[in-house]
Design a protein that fits this description.
By secondary structure, the chain is of the alpha/beta class. The protein is 60% helix and 9% strand. Helix 13 (234-267) packs across helix 14 (274-294). The radius of gyration is 33 Å and the shape is flat.
Length: 527
């Protein structure tokens, strides 16, 4: 089952990447064609200036390593003298390189010499954004895994490495250009290129293009971008944190207004109209997104959100509802009761879509747990204890990753008040004296001791003696007692803390680790 999940995710990633590549190639072709047409007069002026400045061709075609290691010729405006030494010198250029012409210095400083590469983009040899194409002789020195990863995409006119090292020529000196480049600059540029390949997306490309344009301005050129901002820039943040959730919330709000309208029409006539309903949905969604952004709701990773994160969502909804209610009273778009009802349904929708993964996981876990035909194929587990550690064990075993391997039959606990109740969906079946009966009745395969209190009051050997060839016994470390012990220990007062720390906490740690070393603990096994 796990192999099927991995293959399914790999297939989805491949399809998604192929779609992104198709969109990117289309955008590259359209934009490069438009730029070549619009900048044709500029190209003509630059060609005339180069011809008048020094003899030789206006363009330079340099060999570069392209996608999948295929060599192509990158097009640039010529910036060096047309002499043999210009072709025989270092593969990279320093600021004080004598091979560069007077006009060439200006073209390099303004980056106008890079404009002809839009022709390479139109031909499909390059992209607008991608790792900068390297000289073949230098690229062949890369480690094989880096070579294959970086060259798995089309090289680009600009890249995160290009933005970060936009003043590369000023970092090099004419005496030791190649040594400095290969030792100091090239490794970090390769690292940035690898990060781009791994995190590439439409929004990252927009960020790189934005930074490239802004950093061409003289007053901003000296600013050094933090690496985090370089890869997670304004476009990525806007889409991932705001626009994506705004689109989802807009749909939820529109559905809430539609459902409320249908309910409202049962008792009273209603004539809102599609235009007013759509305008209201957009207005409330925008209001909720703005208040959520100001209150930090969009900074929560909702797929990994905890239960308490919902209390950051509700205040944003309350503020948006209050402002929206007052605005609706003034404009008279919706009846007040309908607005409040739609707002309440919208809140339910906001919670559901943000916790959809957890709701689906819970439903899937329950469905898998209750499959009668599949129970026989799973290891039956009985948990000794019902405290925090036992609840943690239940949560781990009830996760969809483990549901197809383990079935938690129940818990046992000596506390009389817990007999027969359900904790985390698992029923307390009895106490320690009922172990022989429960093992035989439910054909238990694994007994997990997950309660230090029971371990201290019961004779552990009496529980461990039920370990047989078909029934294994394991101890789950008392993590919470360990954390309590850590909280009491201070680097300054460590000796005093040793006297204050409860002996039970220290015993929990040492006892459980010793038992873990002696016994086969199935949770530690890998799939």
């Amino acid at each position: 089952m796990e192999l099927m999940k991995v293959n399914n995710h790999a297939f989805q990633d491949k399809i998604s990447q192929q779609l992104n590549d198709l969109i990117k190639r289309t955008v590259d072709a359209v934009i490069s064609a438009i730029v070549l047409v619009l900048l044709a007069p500029v190209f003509g002026l630059v060609v005339l200036a180069i011809r008048r400045d020094t003899p030789g061709p206006a363009f330079y075609r340099g060999p570069r390593m392209g996608r999948y290691g295929k060599t192509f010729h990158m097009l640039k405006f010529r910036t060096m003298y047309e002499r043999p030494e210009s072709y025989q010198g270092p593969r990279v250029t320093a600021q004080d390189d004598p091979r560069v012409t007077r006009l060439g210095h200006w073209l390099r400083e303004t980056k106008l010499n890079e404009l002809p590469q839009f022709w390479n983009v139109l031909k499909g040899e390059m992209s607008l954004v991608g790792p900068r194409p390297e000289d073949p002789d230098i690229a062949k020195t890369w480690p094989r895994e880096i070579f294959e990863e970086v060259l798995s995409v089309r090289p680009g006119i600009t890249s995160p490495a290009s933005v970060q090292y936009r003043n590369e020529e000023t970092l090099l000196s004419a005496g030791s250009v190649m040594q400095k480049y290969l030792a100091d600059l090239a490794p970090d540029k390769m690292r940035l290129d690898q990060l781009y390949v791994r995190y590439r997306s439409f929004w990252l490309d927009l960020d790189v293009l934005l930074w490239t344009a802004l950093l061409l301005l003289p007053k901003i050129r000296a600013y050094t971008l933090p690496e985090q901002v370089l890869f997670v820039g304004p476009a990525t943040r806007l889409f991932r944190r705001y626009m994506s959730w705004f689109s989802i919330d807009l749909l939820v709000t529109f559905i809430a207004i539609g459902v409320t309208g249908l309910i409202w029409r049962v008792d009273a006539p209603l004539n809102i109209g599609w235009s007013r309903a759509i305008a209201g949905a957009i207005g409330f969604s925008l209001l909720f997104s703005i208040t959520g952004a100001l209150m930090g709701v969009n900074r929560i990773a909702w797929l990994q959100a905890s239960d308490r994160d919902i209390f950051d969502l509700i205040p944003a909804w309350m503020v948006a509802t209050l402002i929206g209610y007052m605005a609706n009273l003034a404009a008279g778009v919706f009846p007040s009761g309908l607005f409040l009802m739609a707002s309440g349904l919208a809140l339910i929708g906001y919670i559901v879509v943000r916790y959809r993964s957890r709701l689906f996981t819970g439903f899937l876990s329950r469905a898998l747990r209750n499959r009668g035909a599949a129970r026989a194929a799973r290891e039956r587990v009985l948990i000794v204890g019902s405290g925090p550690t036992a609840q943690l064990a239940t949560w781990l075993l009830d996760h969809p990753v483990n549901t197809n391997r383990f079935w938690v039959v129940g818990m046992i606990d000596n506390d009389l008040y817990k007999q027969g109740i359900r904790i985390f969906g698992v029923q307390v079946l009895g106490n320690c004296k009922d172990l022989p009966h429960l093992i035989a009745k439910y054909d238990i395969g694994v007994i997990i001791l997950a309660d230090q209190g029971i371990a201290e009051t019961e004779d552990v050997t009496n529980i461990a003696r039920y370990q047989t060839a078909s029934t294994r016994f394991a101890v789950l470390p008392d993590i919470f007692a360990t954390l309590n012990g850590l909280a009491l220990v201070s680097p300054i007062y460590q000796e005093d803390a040793q006297e204050v720390q409860p002996e039970a906490s220290k015993l929990a740690c040492t006892y459980c680790l010793a038992r873990m070393a002696q016994l086969d603990f199935p949770l530690a096994e890998k799939n």
